[in-house]
Specification:
Blueprint: H1 3-16, H2 25-29, E1 36-39, E2 43-47, E3 56-61, H3 76-91, E4 98-103, E5 113-117, H4 128-135, E6 139-141, H5 142-152, H6 160-167, H7 183-190
Antiparallel strand pairs: 1-2, 2-3, 3-5, 4-5, 4-6
Helix pairs in contact: 3-5
């Protein structure tokens, strides 16, 4: 076979090869030295590539755990290390109010805890679903997940009905009682809270 034919065959193979699904993107991101802010043998903290606030990190396990629903009592010390990372990230952002938590139905595979500032000012915050995933009970606080894991040995899934209800919750500012008509109005309003 000529080099040209071999090259064409290689190109044909590349074009038919399926790309990795976007939901697996965190696995690559957690190995990217440009994104890593801290890591240990068991845990890595990275900058979110599409931050939904001025400060937005993800804390992930080095082990392949799909989501909070893959956790059991053997993972308590791992989750406590997530908390240690959260505390250290808070120290690095004195003056910012940071929250840590998990999405009840994560869109990305690989367990990940969000550490996010309450300002919610970001060009990547675009939709009502983005907003509601961080400002309703869909965002399960870190301490609640750790407590449930210690008490029950697992995390209870939310119902499909509750998921839909939380995603369709009316918009409301997370810092005051303002109820905007749409996302552009909310995003403009959020700047009034920026110091």
């Amino acid at each position: 076979m000529s080099k040209r034919n071999a090259s064409m065959l290689g190109d044909a193979y590349k074009s038919t090869k399926q790309p990795r699904h976007w939901s697996l993107g965190l696995v690559g991101s957690m190995k990217d030295p440009e994104l890593i802010v801290k890591q240990s043998d068991r845990v890595v903290a990275i900058r979110d590539k599409y931050p939904k606030a001025k400060v937005h990190y993800l804390v992930l396990p080095q082990d392949d755990i799909n989501s909070i629903y893959g956790l059991n009592k053997n993972h308590i010390s791992l989750l406590e290390e997530f908390g240690d990372f959260y505390e250290e990230l808070k120290e690095n952002h004195d003056g910012a109010t940071l929250r840590a938590g998990f999405h009840a139905v994560p869109s990305l595979q690989r367990l990940h805890m969000h550490v996010i500032s309450s300002d919610m000012v970001s060009p990547c915050l675009k939709t009502k679903v983005h907003w509601n995933s961080f400002t309703t009970k869909f965002f399960i606080p870190y301490q609640d997940v750790l407590s449930e894991l210690k008490e029950s040995g697992s995390i209870q899934k939310i119902s499909t009905e509750l998921h839909k209800s939380l995603m369709s919750t009316d918009l409301q500012c997370n810092q005051c009682s303002f109820k905007p008509k749409n996302m552009p109005q909310l995003k403009e309003h959020l700047f009034t809270h920026v110091k």
